[in-house]
Each structure stands twice: as C-alpha cells, then as structure tokens.
Write a structure and sequence with these properties.
Layout (H helix, E strand, L loop, with lengths): L8 E6 L4 E8 L4 E8 L2 H15 L6 E5 L5 H8 L3 E4 L2 H8 L10 H14 L5 E2 L5 H34 L1 H4 L8 H9 L3 H6 L2 H10 L7 H8 L10 H38 L14 H6 L6 H10 L1 H6 L2 H8 L4 E5 L2 E5 L6 H17 L1 H12 L4 H22 L18
Parallel strand pairs: 1-4, 4-5
Antiparallel strand pairs: 1-2, 2-3, 5-6, 7-8
C-alpha cells in the first residue's frame, strides 16, 4: 500500500457498460449500504456523493476496490479524492470462492467480495495513482499507431491479392506492397496492357524521384511486359476498381501513420521533461534518453515502454516489467512434477513491443546475437530465444535506469555466478 492514511470504510464497485453496482462496508465488515448507478455523468457524480453519505467520511479515508485500473469510473473516483485500488479479475474470481462454493455470481455479490476482501486482504490490491496527462496522451497515440500499422498491413495484403488475380508480375516488384513508389507505379501502370504502352522516360522519372535502386527502367519494364495471364472478361476491370479503392485507403492510413510517428517523437521528448519520481543527481540522464540508447528500441517500442509500463519503468522494477511483457515464464511445481510454461496473461501491446525490441537487438547487438545463437543451438525455438533476449535486455535497461548511464555496446556483459550464460 502506497499511502499512510487510516482507512475507515471500504467500497467495492462492480463496473459494467451500462450500470455499476457499489457495496459499502465499515472497517469491521458491517454493511453500510449497496445500490446500482447508471453509467453517465449524473450517475458517477451520484456514486461519489452516495459513498460520502453512507460512510460519513472524507474521501481520503475511504478505499474503493474495482477490477480495472483505468476507465471513466476509476478516473471519476480518483478525481473525487477516494483511495482507488485495482485487483486482477482472476484474483477476484478466487476470492469469490470464499463466499460461495456453488459458483454463484451477480453484480451485488461481486461488489461485496471486492469490499470485504479489500478489508481483509488489501495486499492483493494495487493502489492507483493519477497518471500524468502526457503519459495518457502518449499511451493513446502509441495504441493508435499500432492499430494504423495493422490496418496498413491488412490493406497491403488485400492489394497484393488483387494484383495476384490479374497482374502477378507486379507482385514481384517489392515485399512491401504499400511502399509509395509501388502505389505510384500502379497508378501509372495498372494493367499489363498499359505496361506495353507506357513511355520509358515516364517510368525513369518515377524511379528517380522515389530513389528506387533495386530496379532499373529496362529490367522493370521487361518484367512487367512479360506474358500476362489469361483472365475472364471483366476480371481486370473489377480488380482495377478494387485496387483504386484500396490505394485511397492505403494512402490515408500511411499519412495518418506519419502524423502518429511525429506525435510519438513529440510526446517522448515531453516525457523526458517530466519531473522524476525520485530525487536524482543533477546530470542524470532522463528515462527516454537511456532507453533510446539501447539496441532495438525505436520510437514505437520506446512509446510502448513509457506508456504501457510506466509504473514499472519509474520503479525500475525488472521483475514487474518481465512479467508485464510476458518474458518471465510461469513455473508449476507439484510433487514430482515441474513444468515451466510461457506466460500468456500479459498486455498484448507490451508483449509485442518487447518481442520487436529483442528481434531488432539480435540484428544489431553482438552480445544479443551470440546469446540468441546459443539458445538456438540448445534446441530452443525462435520465440523462446527472443523471450530470453528480452529478459536480458529488460534487466540491462532497469540497471541503466538506476545508474543513469547510457548503453555501451563495447561493455562486456557480466557472467552470473557459476559461469552460466
């Protein structure tokens, strides 16, 4: 618990999309009241006023338990001054078994379980503190850029499929069918018939403007003018119409991605200017600069670490960051049985960010590449080896955050006791 105020009342809030249910207990477990509230501005205001009235206490003496660590209900209660705590839904499910072994479940019971278990087992709950507006904005832009990237890939794959139907020579031009020069070239040469009539100088100017070095004008036109496949009447026209719609959407998504990347850079710089959580030496580097110096961390990964794992980064908690990113395995031991399994319960966006962090580090960092090769030689899969790389990089990053040092690629990694690597 991260506050020293004596708690005199406990309130459990079972949130939902339309109606939230609240249950209030005093410090001895006596019922103070319970009722439902609508999800609206008036409903949430009424919820805060009801808690104050049934407890008769100042908000700073009332602990509120809820399943989610974010959202309008959490933000409204925190803004009202209550001590809001979050618990994992899986833990709440186990705590519910204390009160009913028949598997009964309803909103009132869940709210009561939240309140009573918080009264007896507050250590299972995480005290929530307000997040800086810059971090909230960074988190939202980071998620938008990831969604835009996924949308870009989907549209590019659909564009490729249409080309495969009637113009397969075009598919071989690039592995990324959403490149600007590929889209511009398709606008110029949308069909095999157009490839035979287009002027060499027009294509040469396009390749020069887009700085394409993989293809020369002669090899490109020779490839596109190869014998076309025979298609039924109307297929080419239908595919061209479909591609025109896809390209408009592709260009819009790519333009939005450029805006998103600029916003990520701006917000990461703004995070560097935030006051540190703990007092540091005057010349200590800020967290974004330290993380950015590590191999494998670009703007997207940096934004994900600073936003999705902000608390763990501020606490320099390597164990928490490993668990959040899914690189820490789950160990199960019972009698003679002992198994180590991949951790599935973790934020997807943070897992993806650490995966790409480790993947790029293997390509650019000598020590990460050697560790990856050693893991593969021992029979581990590609994903398992990258999780090991990610775990090591997280440990190095947290150590650097504690000392305020930048990454030194020439520094030899420390050998654990016993000579294990």
């Amino acid at each position: 618990m991260e506050h020293n105020i004596a708690i005199a009342a406990y309130v459990g809030v079972d949130w939902a999309s339309a109606t939230h249910y609240a249950y209030a207990l005093d410090a001895f477990g006596q019922k103070l009241g319970h009722r439902a509230f609508a999800h609206s501005g008036e409903g949430l205001t009424e919820l805060a006023a009801w808690i104050r009235s049934v407890t008769g206490l100042e908000p700073a003496s009332v602990a509120v338990g809820i399943e989610v660590p974010h959202g309008p209900v959490v933000e409204h209660l925190m803004d009202a001054g209550f001590l809001v705590h979050a618990v994992n839904p899986k833990q709440l499910d186990r705590l519910r078994d204390r009160f009913t072994i028949a598997g009964a479940k309803d909103d009132r019971l869940d709210a009561f379980v939240l309140a009573d278990s918080m009264r007896t087992d507050l250590r299972f709950y995480r005290f929530l503190q307000p997040v800086h507006p810059t971090i909230i904005e960074l988190r939202e832009w980071s998620r938008m850029v990831e969604d835009l990237s996924a949308e870009r890939n989907r549209l590019a794959n659909r564009f490729r499929h249409q080309l495969w139907r009637y113009f397969p020579q075009f598919v071989d031009l690039s592995e990324d069918w959403a490149r600007d020069w590929v889209l511009d070239l398709w606008d110029m040469i949308p069909t095999p018939a157009k490839a035979r009539s287009v002027r060499t100088g027009t294509v040469a100017r396009l390749l020069y403007r887009r700085r394409v070095r993989k293809w020369s004008v002669e090899t490109l036109l020779a490839h596109l003018r190869a014998t076309p496949i025979a298609v039924a009447p109307g297929v080419t026209e239908a595919c061209v119409a479909h591609c025109q719609i896809l390209i408009v959407r592709l260009r819009l998504v790519m333009e939005q991605m450029k805006v998103g990347m600029k916003q990520l850079e701006r917000l990461c710089i703004a995070v560097a200017d935030l006051p540190p959580v703990e007092a540091t030496a005057p010349n200590t580097r800020c967290d974004p600069d330290i993380l950015r110096s590590m191999p494998g961390i670009g703007p997207i990964v940096l934004a994900a670490l600073l936003s999705e794992a902000h608390d763990a980064v501020c606490r320099r908690g390597a164990a928490a960051l490993r668990a959040l990113s899914g690189v820490a395995p789950v160990t199960r031991r019972s009698g003679k049985q002992y198994t180590v399994a991949m951790r599935h319960s973790c934020p997807h966006r943070l897992r993806t960010a650490v995966y790409h962090w480790a993947r790029v580090a293997v390509l650019n960092d000598f020590h990460s590449r050697n560790r990856y090769s050693a893991m593969r030689k021992r029979g581990h899969s590609h994903a398992r080896a990258l999780r090991s790389i990610g775990s090591r990089l997280i440990g190095v990053a947290c150590a650097m955050l504690q000392t305020g040092e930048l990454f030194d690629k020439n520094r030899m990694p420390q050998i654990p006791a016993g000579g294990a690597t």
